[in-house]
Design a protein that fits this description.
The protein is about 50% helix and about 10% strand. It is of the alpha+beta class and about 425 residues long. It has a 6-stranded mixed β-sheet with strand order 1-2-3-9-6-4. Belongs to the cytochrome P450 family.
Length: about 425
């Protein structure tokens, strides 16, 4: 029997460091297969897993790791300090740990994000939301009826809540967001990337030092106590890396989720009407937004620890692989031929992957879901006529291919 011919290699997809809407590219790439080679900034070769089933299996595969020692180009010295994605690959903490180390670090913070602990935060989230709605109304009054919902509502809610959980003073919030945005961007220059990472690490170290001098009833104090009690449980680099992860992931994802959900409802008034009439729920809005317009498009990185064949495509050992969450959410093979339609009545049993899958499933998922559900219901209850102030096509897109959203969301609250 003659051997089957090897499949013709796909031309690599060059990811645009400046970002942009991923969905048209995703549809084209998915039509060619669930896995595609990509070119990362700096001409680094990588892969992206785009199909829902392939991504689900890849995220939980026992021969796929997160540790930087498995990244071939990094081990060979081909990744410079100013590479815009270097923090994703090298920051010490849960995001780059595997096996027992990952379980050790995750256990240190997991108690703060259980369903019970998150539910205890509900009154506080509701109170913060009410105050922000007043601020949004005031911003509109002084802005000729228009306010940036992302700036005045979608950002301060999750950032304020995660900083409160960590015991971080409000005076640091604007600076933390600015630095977080630079760290997750993919269009920064090497000098900008190095400076932003250095400043963020120095700020977090100063916050930790202040908290060590005056501990409180917060997660940062608990982490410092674990570090001081037993260096084998948490060292200084892991402490700073954990704070970085919690602050960045604790607000950037929910910020994009809220922005994308409001944008979706404003441009799909029939779907908003379903919720208002009680034929769908705000939780349905959150889940459909997560699927239809994932807050994260391409998340770095995982590495095969041996050569793997994923959906018929060879992914060599040590290749940096991106999780294509925005593509998987609109994969017609998983979500049906109308996967590109925002539909709160969708009855498919396939669950989206936008909060991850496997051992690295998003630890803050319960908190993000609660914040978004409360915020959306409160927003459209207070401002039922709220709508976009500019055509959706004119909204500037998120800088980079990791996050998926728009940079501003000008709205007319009405009322």
């Amino acid at each position: 029997m003659n051997a089957l011919p090897a499949p013709t290699p796909r031309p690599p997809h060059r990811l645009d460091p400046a970002g942009g809407c991923p969905h048209a590219h995703n549809a084209r790439l998915l039509a060619e297969g669930a896995v595609t080679p990509v070119v990362l900034p700096g001409e680094i070769e990588g892969m992206a897993v785009l199909g829902h089933d392939a991504l689900r299996d890849f995220l939980s595969h026992p021969d796929v790791a997160k540790g930087p020692q498995h990244f071939t180009a990094l081990a060979e010295g081909r990744i410079p300090d100013g590479w815009p994605l270097r923090t994703f690959a090298t920051v010490p903490g849960m995001i780059t740990a595997d096996g027992a180390d990952h379980r050790r670090l995750r256990t240190l913070v997991s108690s703060a994000f259980t369903n019970r602990r998150v539910e205890e935060l509900r009154p506080r989230v509701e109170a913060v939301t009410a105050g922000l709605l007043d601020g949004l109304a005031e911003a509109a009054r002084t802005g000729d009826g228009v306010a940036d919902l992302r700036r005045h509502y979608a950002l301060p809610l999750p950032l304020g809540v995660i900083c409160e959980l960590l015991g971080v003073d409000a005076e640091h919030q604007d600076r933390l967001h600015r630095l977080s945005s630079l760290v997750v961007a993919t269009d920064t220059t090497p000098a900008q990337a190095v400076a932003a990472n250095r400043e963020l690490v120095e700020l977090l170290a100063a916050i930790a030092a202040d908290k060590a001098a005056a501990p409180g009833d917060d997660l940062t104090s608990a982490l410092i106590a674990a570090r001081d009690e037993d260096g084998d449980r948490l060292d200084q680099a892991e402490l700073i890396g954990t704070l970085l992860l919690l602050i960045v992931a604790g607000h950037e994802t929910t910020l994009n989720l809220l922005t994308n959900a409001v944008r979706a409802l404003c441009t799909h008034r029939d779907q908003l009407a379903l919720v208002v009439e009680g034929r769908a729920t705000w939780a349905d809005v959150v889940e459909e937004t997560l699927r239809w317009d994932s807050p994260v498009s391409y998340f770095p990185f995982r590495y095969p620890t041996r050569d793997l064949t994923v959906d018929g495509i060879l992914v060599p050992r040590g290749t940096p692989v991106l999780a294509g969450y925005s593509a998987a959410g609109r994969d017609t093979k998983a979500h049906g031929p109308d996967a590109d339609r925002f539909d709160l009545t969708r009855t498919a049993t396939v669950k989206h992957l936008s909060l991850g899958h496997g051992p690295h499933y998003c630890l803050g998922a319960p908190l993000a879901r609660m914040e978004a559900t409360i915020a959306l219901e409160a927003l459209f209850t207070r401002f039922p006529e709220l709508d976009l102030a500019v055509p959706e096509s004119e909204l500037p897109r998120h800088a980079g291919f990791v996050g998926n959203s728009v940079r501003t969301l000008p709205v007319r609250p009405g009322g």
